[in-house]
Amino acid sequence: MQPTDAATTLPPPFFRFRENLVESCQSLRGHRLPWLAVAFGVGVGLYFALPVEPPLVATACLAGLTLLLLAAGIRLRGSIGFLPLMVAVALSGLVVAQARTAVVAGPVLQFRYYGAIEGRVVIVDRSASGAPRLTLDRVRLDRFAPQETPHRVRVSMQTDDLVPFPGTRVMTTGHLSPPAGPTEPGGFDFQRHAWFQGLGAVGYTRVPVLRAEALEGGTALAVARFRQFLGDGLRARIPGQAGQVAAAITTGDRAGLSSEVTEALRASNLAHLLAISGLHMGLLVGFVFWAIRGGFALVPSLALNYPTRVWAAAAALPFALAYLFLSGGTVATQRAFIMAAVMLGAILLGRRALSIRSVAIAAILVLLWRPESLTGPGFQMSFAATGALVLAFGALSRSGRGSWMRGWKGAFLSLLLSSLVAGFATGPIAALHFNRVGQFGVLANLLAVPVMGFAIMPLLFLGLLLWPLGLESGPFWIARQGIDWILWVADWVANLPGAVSYMSAPSWQVLPVLGLGMAVLGASRGPWGRGGGLVALVTAAFLWVGSDRPDLLISDDGRLVGAMTENGRWLNRETGVGFVAQSWLENDGDGALQVEAGGRLFHLPLDWPQIHAAPTPGQMADFVDDCAVNPGLLIGPAEIADVPDGCVSVDAAFLKRTGAVAIRFEQGSIRMQTVSEFQGMRPWTPKR
């Protein structure tokens, strides 16, 4: 009897599946880089989604598995090698994110502190309330050993008097506390944000800040002082809020902007003009590139015989680097610089500057440098807009319909299409993070962005170049007219009827599903990949529509309680704990103020238990007595020693372990979710 070949015993569908798989992998040749960027981002996202920090042994095993998968990908590169390569890149994203977490690790304050604070000023900005705020390093605190002292602390001042320059060593007496946790389960995690910023404590002082030592040296501090010098100079030469806007878009200093201007820019979807990001970096680099190339074009012998396009790209790169340092080198600016550098590098190498491949390279480099940026709206909106614009204009170019983009009519249509595409791509992300949508954002951007690109940015740049010669007044005056126009547009659009609509925050699953769908849709070139991306987007939409807000929210200190009613969330306090109250109302999609929410009528639904919420520790005893008479949910900002029979206690001791609490009442039962459940046991979470 002849031996049977094992391969012939396999069913025919297996061979068809294998052939289709090999064909799919090979069809991606030349288009694999976007998929690698998606895989790397998935790995980073998985790290931040883990409930516990992976032990070092597990990380070492993952690193070894990554190497094995890379070897398998190389060996199988003629067939299905791209699949193990994708998995290897995803695992490397997880490992890189954990390595970044370990690199930035530092002591975090574990309790409230009052006493002497001393440190060197490294950042001067303003809080949400407009108070001057100092970030200090080389910190000294009373009764703290050096190894227990946070590397950086942030202190808000009470007045604008004598705000110190960066580099000054200062001392004061103030209150510090650990970085606050999310205001509700699934909310913004400031503790994680502070961990990657190196902030181990935040607080305030009510006494003057004294200079302990003279200005210290160092390149970073010299740049910070130069930025402050430029900002003060711009404000002196361009009076009013126009000067504050000029300082913001040049040096990143938004400290002097009024709350009215800031709110109008947000309501009109023009707030992105203040953030030094891809738009500003692109406008500056584009202006320098085309100015230099245009200058070369005036010399026919150079334009016809030499690669002036490459020369212009090489000349624009140092200006992008200078703008990076001038603007303070924030994460958003670093991301913008990397994207600009990749585009200019593509020109230097003779490749297309605007391609999805360039966007993928920029995304990988940004995530290698700052993996935590994946979780922020800046990264998500920047790459969503850039990727969507590249895909839209690339499709038009390939279809042969790009001829309409020539001339003034083409410039207007290109601007309109850019605003629509970018707004469509970033709108869901902005609504998810900020719970508001500017209904007339496209109109505002059409009226404002051309002025920013063709007048304000070039003239401010020209004015800075002419400043040493004393000839800056002309360019700055014209730039002021453009800024005043933008401020007028923002105010007009913000006051249109229905200019802003509010949206409630969806469940936490919506953001990763939405992001993955957009990434897959951008990376795909075939119907299967694009279909998968669309399925993810539709799934995210259904999850968003099906999301509901908690019936009851309790702050992490027990002082604030909010119950959902037919007319919006009722709060047990009209003042105090204002940041938490505003955060809850925004997440509800409610534009009301805390005082309005505190005055709402609250009628206890029939299927809810009785709620006894004490706003202050001094009132706890009365509410405990009430709960003994009418058993139900007993909430308060102090520890309850003896809980009456039939009462469910959510007191200070309980909240210290759990953080803020969200409760849903379902068919007579209580379903409770806590911040500690969502955060898990990570390096940046408190030890509960």
From TrEMBL:
TM region positions: 33-50, 56-74, 270-292, 304-326, 354-371, 377-396, 408-434, 440-465
Entry's localization field: Cell membrane
Record protein name field: ComEC family competence protein
Annotated DUF4131 domain residues: 55-206
Pfam families the UniProt entry points to: Competence (PF03772), DUF4131 (PF13567)
Domain ComEC/Rec2-related protein: from-to ranges: 250-523
Position of the signal peptide: none
Coiled coil feature spans: none
Primary subcellular site in the record, as a coarse category: membrane
A cellular component annotation (GO) from this entry: plasma membrane
Listed PANTHER family: DNA INTERNALIZATION/COMPETENCE PROTEIN COMEC/REC2 (PTHR30619), RECOMBINATION PROTEIN 2 (PTHR30619:SF1)
Species classification: Bacteria, Pseudomonadati, Pseudomonadota, Alphaproteobacteria, Rhodobacterales
